[in-house]
Write a structure and sequence with these properties.
Helix content: 40-55%
Oligomer: single chain
Number of domains: 2
Radius of gyration: 19 Å
Structural class: alpha+beta
Number of strands: 4
Largest sheet: 2 strands, antiparallel
Shape: globular
Distance between the termini: 55 Å
Strand content: 5-15%
Length: 159
């Protein structure tokens, strides 16, 4: 009886570990720039970029999942706006640096360097990189759009 209880508990624990490990691997996509916790945009509120035209920290209290990434929001209203139309608010190139994408590279972003162009959110590694990117935004978007399909599903460290 004691052995059966121990064996059952051990199998249950192993199964739980396997499920957790597998789910974190399965949800960590190469096509989104997320941190170790699966959070995109360095935790910034995707909707606030559009409504306040500034980078606003999101909260773990208000979240939504889209394309295997966890989005954080500063309030419930923004979370609900996002949920009603995530394609509108989600960043281009899976939240990777827009300027880096012009070279077919996936660079993490700090969430503070962004631009809304034709109703789409583009984020950059940091403000210094953003300054280079904004010198010719139309060309850089064209170049990045050409690169994205060929690198979308490749891990950043493989590029």
């Amino acid at each position: 009886m004691l052995f059966t209880k121990f064996f059952t508990k051990s199998i249950t624990n192993l199964l739980a570990i396997f499920v957790i490990a597998f789910s974190s691997i399965a949800s960590a996509g190469d096509n989104t720039d997320t941190d170790a916790n699966g959070v995109i945009l360095a935790g910034h509120d995707a909707v606030a970029y559009f409504t306040k035209n500034k980078a606003v920290e999101g909260s773990a209290k208000y979240t939504a999942i889209y394309n295997d990434a966890i989005y954080r929001f500063s309030n419930a209203k923004n979370r609900n706006l996002f949920k009603s139309n995530p394609e509108k608010y989600a960043p281009q190139y899976g939240g990777f640096c827009a300027y880096g994408m012009t070279f077919g590279k996936k660079f993490e972003i700090d969430g503070k360097a962004f631009e809304i162009v034709n109703g789409k959110l583009f984020v950059n590694k940091n403000l210094s990189v953003y300054e280079s990117w904004r010198k010719d935004i139309p060309t850089h978007i064209t170049q990045a759009n050409e690169q994205w399909p060929s690198v979308e599903h490749i891990a950043a460290n493989k590029l």
